[in-house]
UniProtKB/TrEMBL annotation:
The lineage of its organism: Bacteria, Pseudomonadati, Bacteroidota, Flavobacteriia, Flavobacteriales. Belongs to the class-A beta-lactamase family. This is Beta-lactamase. NCBIfam families: bla_class_A (NF033103). Residues 1-24 form the signal peptide. PROSITE patterns: BETA_LACTAMASE_A. Keywords: Antibiotic resistance, Hydrolase, Signal. The gene is bla.
Length: 332
């Protein structure tokens, strides 16, 4: 009898110790989420976070199921949809595309204003390059067309199992509606409007709650995380296209104060930023010193703080998660 009781006691104790790591990890994830919310509460209006170590099934989220304006982070989905057509043999990365002057879009761009004469052609590979690394709106709207248009990008996302993620408009329409321009924005139209109404430029960094309430071109942090994981896992594209896209993202030049802002110097980051009004976003992949990687999505909206504060909020989130994932490996 005593032997049986001893065996039962041993089984119970073993079961408790087996549960303890999972419980501790849950507690750690909850503590990290609370820490992030406290760090960012005065830096940005509302924040959405989703992160996951590559190869794990455990996520850290804050407002993960809430819709956020994606701004230019939706260009990751556009790039993936174009690459899907490349994988299916419908397009080629070395295929040349005419870029005419009437295609030039406003925005912080690599093409608009730099090429002022007719005769420009770019390969699809280079269109994706400047769309991601420079967040170029001209390259984005051309790439959107190569993907088959906004509806085709959304259909592609549904085909790979991603919902809560909408692509509805080219950048010209998004910009035009944010600024209240008469119809889809073009470089010529925008130039004329901004010359006539220079006060419009002052609202560039101000929140626009009506714009944010529009469900178009929005996603949840979890849906964007799902796309990043699908790309990395080879579900969204071929392995060759995955490597191409992540390599392009590793050369991103925008938003140096966001995901990269507080990370140790030299940390490998592959990312895509997004900014419009009170919205500042950054999404991508971060590599830890031991070679492990995690995918991360940080969305913000409705901010009345400075651009530097919004960038700092994203940087604080990223560094907190970086430390969490890195220290977790040291605890093993």
């Amino acid at each position: 009898m005593k032997r049986k009781m001893k065996q039962l006691f041993t089984v119970i104790i073993s079961a408790l110790f087996a549960v303890q790591p999972a419980f501790a990890q849950k507690q750690n994830a909850e503590a990290i989420s609370q820490k992030i919310e406290k760090l960012t509460e005065k830096l940005a209006g509302r924040i959405g976070v989703a992160a996951q170590e590559i190869g794990s099934d455990k996520k850290i989220t804050i407002n993960g199921d809430e819709q956020f304006v994606m701004a230019s982070t939706y260009k990751v989905a556009i790039a993936a949809a174009v690459l899907d057509r490349v994988d299916r043999g419908e397009l080629r990365l070395d295929q040349m595309v005419d870029v005419t002057l009437d295609m030039m879009m406003i925005g912080d761009a690599a093409l608009n204003g730099r090429f002022v004469h007719p005769g420009l052609q770019l390969s699809i590979a280079n269109l994706i390059e400047v769309m991601i690394t420079e967040s170029d709106n001209t390259a984005t709207d051309i790439s959107m067309g190569l993907a088959g248009g906004p509806a085709a990008v959304t259909k592609y996302l549904r085909r790979i199992g991603i919902s809560d993620f909408r692509v509805d408009r080219p950048t010209g329409e998004i910009i035009g509606e944010f600024y209240g321009l008469p119809g889809p924005a073009t470089h010529k139209l925008a130039t004329e409007v901004f010359k006539a109404r220079p006060e419009l430029l002052k609202i560039q960094g101000d929140r626009n709650l009506d714009f944010e309430a529009d469900p178009r071109d929005q996603a949840t942090p979890l849906a964007m995380l799902q796309l990043l994981l699908a790309i990395d896992g080879g579900k969204a594209t071929s392995s060759e296209s995955r490597d191409f896209l992540i390599n392009v993202m590793s050369r991103t030049r925008t938003g140096s104060g966001r995901l990269k802002g507080l990370l140790p110097k030299g940390t490998p980051v592959a990312n895509k930023t997004g900014t419009i009004g009170g919205v500042a976003n950054d999404v991508g992949y971060i590599t830890l010193p031991d070679g492990r990687r995690f995918a991360i999505v940080v969305f913000t909206k409705s901010s009345t703080t400075s651009e530097a504060d919004r960038d700092r909020a994203i940087a604080e989130v990223t560094r907190t998660l970086y430390d969490f994932y890195y220290l977790k490996s040291e605890d093993k």
